Amino acid sequence: MSILPMKYFWTFLVLIFGHQSFGQQVYNLHEVEQQAAPPAGMGQLEEYLQANLQLPIALAAKGLNGRVFVQGIIEPDGSMSDLQVLRSIAPEVDKEVMRILSLFRAWKPAMKGGSPVRQKLVYPAQIRTEANPGYDAQEEVLLEYFNKKQVATQIASEIEYRNYIPVDALGHARGELLFQKKKGDQWKTIVTVPFSGTETWIKLAGPKGADSLQAIVTSTKGSNANSVYEKVIRTPEGRIIAFELYEGNKSIPQVARYYYAHGGIRQSLQLGESIGQKTDWYPNGQIRSIIQFEPESGKGPTILSNWAEDGRPLVVNGEGSAILAGLPREGAWVFDSGMVKDGKQEGLWSGRLADSTTIYEEEYIAGSLQSGTDHLQNYTTYLQTEGSRPPQFKGGLMAMYQFMANSFYFPGTRPKGRVVTSFIVQPDGSIKDLKVLKGIGTEADKEALRVIGLMDGKWDPALYKGRSIASPMSIPVNFQAE
């Protein structure tokens, strides 16, 4: 065993402790050569804050408009430490702002003498929410009022109908939704929209594969195909994994937010009349891409902007070389890369795993897929131009409801409730692994399985990059007592 000479030993200690002292020193704004900032500017952090914000509805409904001033230290690794509130709005709001800032690890650190250093910073988090006079804090419900033409109104003399929506602390549905008509001083329920909650295990895609996570899936989807409904997936502890708001029988949500396992936003989706926008983030909070799409047109997406994880711009104003988050393959993230011209995919694009394994290659002209090869388990399949979509009952959603109504048979006293079934639609349109996720009784459960079983072979399978794949489905069967 060699022994370090004493003079070198002391030099070694001086270097170590000198380096630690330098690394632990905290600088103020005016003491650094380059101040710490998000790579794409403070607007990027503001957008991340708003996309992640989950406030108690009891507070948000009051209509908040103020700033939470948070002081912290921007570390050389891009994180923000030692967070403390200097000016508060409310303890619940302060706690949420601190949670989001701790998730954002994409700061470009301050520089001094050519090296990254620790810098003190005060961030004013702007908090704005719309007042919602329809929230009843005593009953913990949302009340939405309508006139005789069922147009929203707050004028007392015009009110004839209302939605009665029990909600949880964050404003998500927690029970049956009631559509009611005013009868004198009372309200009579006309329509009841069932509420379902199912405990299950879900797969969250990751760099190397999917992680299993216990979850609770709640939904307010009723039998009316044109109704608005929400679907929320959360952990047993209450942390939201996904939120989707659907309008009618559309397969794409009107509004959606999806989160990483650590609680930070992964993707947000907003669909307008004809154009939607999808925004993706990296796990460290750095914005990844902003993409527009037209779901009804059949046209390819328009790639507006794209950044690398360290904040370097890859696509600016629809021009550049992109690396995008593609659809997961067997639980592992797939990254799409290629040239972007006028916002459209151009030339050769490839989909690769995190370890650079090539999954598929595609040729595009002005965003239109011309041809492609899917490398899967040592064989090659040629891509079609249909792209990707979930399984669909042949003829559409209304045809499925009609088929179920025509097939249903239940002699004797009919129970009341909802049987939730699940199955897998195979690549050939057949179904397998049919089972009851949530039942209401032996006979009702058997009839639900019988009716769903009659759908065998009546499905158009899910497509992934034009290839038919097996995909899970869940269908509720409603029973109404006679």
Q: How would you characterize the overall build of this protein?
A:
The structure is a single chain. By secondary structure, the chain is mainly beta. Helices cover 15% and strands 44% of the residues. It is built from 6 helices and 33 strands. Strands 11-12-13-14-15-16-17-18-19-20-21-22-23-24-25-26 form a 16-stranded antiparallel sheet, covered by helices on one side. Strands 1, 2, 3, 4 and 5 form a 5-stranded mixed sheet that branches. It has a 5-stranded antiparallel sheet with strand order 6-7-8-9-10, with no helix packed on it. The longest helix has 19 residues, at 6-24. It is globular and about 85 Å long. It starts with 5 loop residues before the first helix and ends with a strand. Mean pLDDT is 85; it is low at 1-22.
